[in-house]
Amino acid sequence: MLTPSLLPVLPEIILLVAACTVLLVDAFLPDGQRHVGFWLTQLALFAGSWATLTTFEPEPVLALGALFIDDMLSDLLKFFSYFVVSLMLFYSRAYLTARGLFRGETFVLTLFSLLGMMVMISANSFLTLYLGLELQALSLYAMVAMHRTSNDASEAAMKYFVLGALASGMLLYGMSMVYGATGSLDLHRIAQAVLGGAGNRVILVFGLVFVVSGIAFKLGAAPYHMWLPDVYHGAPTAVTLLIGTAPKLAAFAFMLRLLGVALSGLEFDWQGMLMVLSLMSMILGNVIAIAQSNIKRMLAYSTIANMGFMLLGFLAANLNGYSAAMFYVVAYVITSLASFGVVLLLSREGFEADRIDDFRGLNQRSPWWAFVMLLVMFSLAGIPPTVGFYAKFSVLEAAVNAGFTWLAVVAVLASVIGAFYYLRIVKLMYFDDAVDAEPIDARLDNRVLLSVNGLALLLFGILPQPLMGLCVVALLQSGFL
Amino acid sequence: MPYLSLAIWVPIVAGIVVLAVGRDRDPGVARWIALFGALSGLLVTLPLWLHFDSGTSSMQFVEIADWVPRFDIHYFLGVDGISMLFVLLNSLMTLLVVWAGWEVIEKRVAQYMAAFLIQSGLINGAFAALDAILFYAFFEAMLIPMYLIIGVWGGPNRVYAAVKFFLYTLLGSLLMLVGFIYLYNVSETFSLLEWYQLPLSLGVQLLLFVAFFLSFAVKVPMWPVHTWLPDAHVEAPTGGSVILAAITLKIGAYGFIRFILPILPDASRYLSGFVITLSLVAVVYIGFVALMQSDMKKLIAYSSISHMGFVTLGLFLFSQLGVEGALVQMISHGFVSAAMFLCVGVMYDRMHSRLIEDYGGVVNTMPKFAAFMMLFAMANAGLPATSGFVGEFLVIVAAVKASFWLGFAAATTLILGSAYTLWMYKRVIFGEVANERVRQLADVTRREFWLLATLAALVLAMGVYPKPFIDVMHASVADLLAHVAQSKL
């Protein structure tokens, strides 16, 4: 149904207005009053989620001349994104303040990147997909570079920008090929054209290769993963937290719209490509992570491996697989949020807490945060009763169901390798003696939210059905069968 | 009453309470709450024994509820004559372990006690689960407390042992998970009881056999995937060794009974020669290895592997005698190995050494202790009138019935078992007082006395009158063998 109303775009409009408002207000704030911008941002996120809820309709609604789609899938992913960004700001408040980054720019750029993600999530045309992607990416490039005095950050930003631009170029090139072959930018029309056999198949597949490369870059799947460890490492931890969480949700939607909708007719072609990406990511990510001594780098390689797992579900190319991949991404984002949350909690002025050795003896310093980190590590390793287990279980089930049992076997072997470095963190926290005796202190809101976040890993691991069911229903309502 | 749920959740909740309330400055509170939790954990399992109907082979105390409808996973619990005994054994051992660690553990008492309590609940869950994923969740989750127990309270090489233990088990069990998912795709269910009826071709059965076998053989452990066990045993604190030997090894053998034999009967029969060979290697070769150990804990660890070889041997003879013998051997080994580790623990707490050469003439200074250890050593060697004899005897009889040479090879354990156990006993306990430190040893405390006395009573009772145990399992074993005999091709 095409509607001339702007109602489906209300959340995006709210965020855009809020971003501009924060920018203006911040210009007039004295240094001691920066928290006004912080609370305004939180308010914007709250208003956004309220708008998403109140404009909710179970059936997909097209808007802005079919450039934009508002279906249950996008509502759900947007809802998670607000949540993640809001938590990210709470977790990193002290960290940003200590480094002089608790400023309007941070909030504005965060809001803009979120806006970009939301456009990606709701895009129904190559044009909007690309627009959203660029808005999100540009804001993130700037955020990585924001810590101007840090050499690592500048280097990371440069790398991110150059490689990101290259990937965008590839994506755009692939999109233009597909456009040339099908004569349309609208995702559903492309899908019809491809299924109807229109267009030169060679050109289509040629375009598909570039599109998949672009997607793989954004996900950080090997062999397009080079930027990821450097950016995770170099960026201020607060920004790493942002890069490591919400954009994964958007990238999943992006991939689903491109491959699952527009190019679903080329399923057999992209299945093979994703298989290679998935295998390489799982093996390479898990093996290289073992050699890391910096926790941000280790988590970066863990991200690569996890994206490989997500692709394993996705390449089943059916509702079962998509919902498994979606559940995996959501579970991964919750876990990742908690992991960087703990890193941020341990850091203080002039101390990053990003070496693995900084976790030594955490159980002596604070049994509770050691326990939260323990949950994170076992969730990433996929050990029950944490949410990571059911995430891995559902993607494995999707792969076996689609007839890729051998892939599932390789995947579990890779995850045994992965378990080694997650166990090492647990070992450091529990088996070793503390070297750092500094007390761990944080604001009450931060502590409460991070605790809830940690316990959520356990809760969704013991009762995964609501979240799993929600993913299935959202995909069903959005027309995936 | 949902007795099985209580058996699982009472210890877990008690463990969480201990964690929440216990403080390092005042460990007494944690100890008492843990003792209370372990005791109530044992009490709630008693109705399982009292209300058990040994006339039937069907599952009893069944509880079923939806867990994850998306994949048709159920919270499905039930016990038969086989698993019920292990739930009881585990709850009893947890009580003993909490008690055994009373004054010995001084570092992070609350976490220590909580780890054992939570692990106890998870183990009960693994024995009671009738849904494959529920089983898997318990089976893997219990790695976490054991990893911490070995790593935090273990010996000097604890990190290596803990990581090795975890990764070995994980590798096996993840392949099993893929096997479960495959079976789900074929049958649309995770219910074990329905899998028992599922027809499968021999090729598929063999592949699944490999996946399941890796998982459970590591856990048993069978030769040649046993190498994690000596490390884990030696480095673990006494309580950890007790639970490892008495309970977690049994989960491996239980997996054979619950999963491999009835779900893959044709593959089991096809590969029975292979498994029997591995078992005999474990019995004979590992028996010789045990003979050469200089560390008491390592010696008992190897003795455990050898005894567990007997269990897998009995299971794969596919006869009523063999399987019942294996089951009795599992329970008996639970008592005896726990007692042996506790004995070593008693000496270690005083001398801080596990090496045989540091001891000698302990009987002169610790007569009561020497008497207890004598009994347990005899039981470990399989002396009649102790529980160790019953299981070994049944398995040997079943082996002789299958083939004389099989029985002959199995019977060498009686010689080897006596040799390594009694030789160690002689060197440690008898003779002149070896050194000044042995001269100053104090005999068992009251706590240690009652701890060992409890186990001694059980060992003797089971050795003299094993009938109640065998009666309970009779119907279930017959049913199991009926499943094995029936081809699923």
**Mean of all residue-level pLDDT scores of chain B:** 87
Binned, the helix content of chain B reads over 70%
* Number of DSSP-assigned strands of chain B: 2
The stretches of 5 or more residues of chain B where confidence is low (pLDDT under 50) are: none
Strand content of chain A: under 5%
Morphology of chain A = globular
Percentage of residues in helical conformation of chain A: over 70%
Number of helices, where a helix is a run of at least 4 consecutive DSSP H or I residues of chain A: 20
Radius of gyration of chain B over all CA atoms, rounded: 21 Å
Radius of gyration of chain A: 21 Å
State the end-to-end distance of chain A: 19 Å
**Averaged pLDDT of chain A:** 89
Q: In total, how many domains does the architecture of chain A comprise?
A: 1
Largest sheet of chain B: 2 strands, antiparallel
The number of E-state strands of chain A comes to 2
Spell out the helices and strands of chain B N to C: HHHEEHHHHHHHHHHHHHHHHHHHH
- Beta fraction of chain B: under 5%
Strand order of the largest sheet of chain A: 1-2
List the chains of the largest interface with their residue counts: A-B, 35 and 36 residues
What are the salient characteristics of this protein?
heterodimer; A: 481 residues; mainly alpha; two-stranded antiparallel ribbon; 1% strand; B: 489 residues; 23 helices
What does the model show?
Chain A is an all-alpha fold and about 475 residues long. Chain A has helices spanning about 10-25, 35-55, 70-100, 105-120, 125-145, 150-180, 185-195, 200-220, 225-235, 235-245, 245-260, 265-290, 295-315, 320-345, 360-365, 365-380, 385-400, 405-430, 445-460, 465-475, and strands spanning about 60-65, 70. In chain A, strands 1-2 form a two-stranded antiparallel sheet. In chain A, α14 packs antiparallel against α17 (about 385-400), α14 crosses α20 and α16 (about 365-380) runs antiparallel to α18. Chain B has about 500 residues and is mainly alpha-helical. Chain B is built from 23 helices and 2 strands. Chain B has a two-stranded antiparallel ribbon with strand order 1-2. In chain B, α1 (about 5-20) packs antiparallel against α2 (about 25-45) and α14 (about 270-290) runs parallel beside α20 (about 405-430). Chain B is globular and about 70 Å long. The two termini of chain B are about 40 Å apart. The model of chain B has no long low-confidence stretch (mean pLDDT about 85). The interface of A and B includes residues 385 and 413 of A.
